[in-house]
Amino acid sequence: MRRRSFLYALTLAAPMLPARAAIDAPLLAQLRRGGNVILMRHAATTPGTGDPDGFVLDQCGTQRNLSAAGRQDAARTGAAFVRLGIPVADVLSSRWCRCLDTAQLAFGRVTPAPLLDSMFADDAAARARKLRAAQAWLATLRATGNIVLVTHDVNIRALAGPYVGPGAMVVATVADAGALRVAGVWSP
Prior knowledge:
The chain is an alpha/beta fold. Helix content is 39%, strand content 15%. α3 packs parallel to α4.
């Protein structure tokens, strides 16, 4: 319980960038050009933090899942990408059901990617290994299209810095050694 309280306090202390409901013209132009990494936090879930004790990764009924509002928001996100003409080359997701469902509802396709799995319950060493693996993978990207990575708050903060709410996105480009350079935050 003490660990969850500490992690919650970290969330409150994390740098926050305002998520825009209406996207500004420069960020939209950048997204339309492609070549971005879009870190999307899974959509809204049933209330809670983390997952119930004893959850099983490949059994959605044991996890904290999307709420009805979260499912609708995910679908609206996909519609916003289409309406605004934002191309999506690939969609990868944490293997947690709330992330897979967000990706599927928004984009109609998803590839599970263990490197995006939640760091919430990981110790510092495991988090560092996961962060290094994600940055090494990002350093290899040569895609011209946008890559959407649906993951968790704690992972987004570790990779890019800002805290974003459920369903919001950090738009970034890959810099040296897989580090991300944040261009903006958007919440369709």
